[in-house]
Amino acid sequence: MRLLALILALYHGANGALMLALPGPWYRLTPGAAESGPMNAHFVRDIGLGFLAAALALALFARAPRAAIVWPAALFLGGHAGLHLAEMALHGTVPAAVLRDLALIVLPGLAPLWLLARPAAGLAEGRS
Prior knowledge:
By secondary structure, the protein is an all-alpha fold. The protein has 5 helices and no strands. Helix 1 runs antiparallel to helix 3 (41-63), helix 1 (2-21) crosses helix 5 and helix 3 packs across helix 4 (67-91).
């Protein structure tokens, strides 16, 4: 459980750091980003801060697994994953984009919720 939280922290933290440092290249190189509308560096950086905050929560959870620590990451990342699922369902997409989004956005985004559902360390009972 701690290893998964650390891997997720590194993954989402790297994404957030790239969004902050290089919003233009991040936008051009991220599959599907250009289809979401015109590039807005301020907006990309705002979202990058959200990814960094989620990564910090996951890193802290990896050190001391308490439900209260991981909830902010679960809300932001799970919400982001849910938006992608809703957009795929409402607007349709090609199979390659579905696989890409499931692997790179949805599964890593829903993983903090899975951490919360695990009975280890009393998380499921709320003893944290």
